[in-house]
Amino acid sequence: MARMILVGGGSSSGKSFLTSATIQAIGEENVTRLTIDDYYKDQSDMPLQDRYKVNYDHPKAFDWALMRRQLSALKEGKTIQKPVYDFVTLTRSSQIEEVTPKSLIVVEGIMALVDKDIRKMADLRVFIEASAERRFLRRIIRDSKERGRSFENIINQYFTTVQPMYDEIVKPSSIYADLIVNNDGVENLAVDVLACVFKEQLAMAKGEKGDFRVEDDEFREEVLAEVFKKPLGR
């Protein structure tokens, strides 16, 4: 049975890069990958100038009902017709992508850990951590090169919605993560770490091994009770 991995984190924390590199490391033939960005609401009935004013870093910008239905269908082994979002026109494109579930279903995006129902579907929840400075610089480079945004537009959006929503919604969602991976430097072990845990999930999906996680008893209630019974040392 397919297993689902959610990969959350702030804008430009490196979610897409790390997810791509990790999938390549374990074999693309084993993974179905989706980005939550494709589930932004359709805004084709809205003038382009008005679309620029939308807060795309708020949960209300996403079509959660469609996302839940389609992710649930994938977990059940069904093929879906996924929307495709256009970052230039700021609405859904006319394209529809047919997506078939493989052994691993990897879902990444800033809101990956925000919705309770989607978290329940997941077998593993990952949060990618990076400093505000690093995310800000990466955002400038990405939006100017890949999305044709002006410097003024990038700066305004970052400080008006991106960082405030990160502080209010995205960062707090990290408490639901099973694994938090730091991606602050140019060279780090993030891909190696993710490859290990993805391989474990892949093996489980294929029925090659059970879940051999060992429960750490260091902080069991009875152990802590004994600690607090001891006199305070000098």
Give an overview of the whole structure.
This protein is globular. It is built from eight helices and seven strands. The chain has 234 residues and is of the alpha/beta class. The mean pLDDT is 89. A hairpin with a 4-residue loop joins strand 3 and strand 4. It has a single domain, classed as P-loop containing nucleotide triphosphate hydrolases (Rossmann fold).
Q: Could you say what the CATH topology is called?
A: Rossmann fold
What structural class do you assign from the helix and strand content?
A: alpha/beta
User: In one word, what is the shape?
Assistant: globular
> What's the mean pLDDT score?
89
The helix content is: 25-40%
Strand content: 15-25%
The total strand number stands at: 7
Q: Report low-confidence residues grouped into runs of 5 or more.
A: none
Strand order of the largest sheet: 2-5-1-6-7
Detail the topology: elements first, then pairings.
Layout: E1 3-9, H1 15-26, E2 31-35, H2 48-51, H3 64-75, E3 80-86, E4 91-99, E5 104-108, H4 116-121, E6 124-129, H5 132-145, H6 151-170, E7 179-182, H7 190-205, H8 221-229
Parallel strand pairs: 1-5, 1-6, 2-5, 6-7
Antiparallel strand pairs: 3-4
What's this model, at a glance?
This protein is 40% helix and 18% strand.
Q: What features would you highlight for this structure?
A:
18% strand, 234 residues, 7 strands, 8 helices, Rossmann fold, alpha/beta, single chain, 40% helix, globular, 5-stranded parallel beta sheet, two-stranded antiparallel ribbon
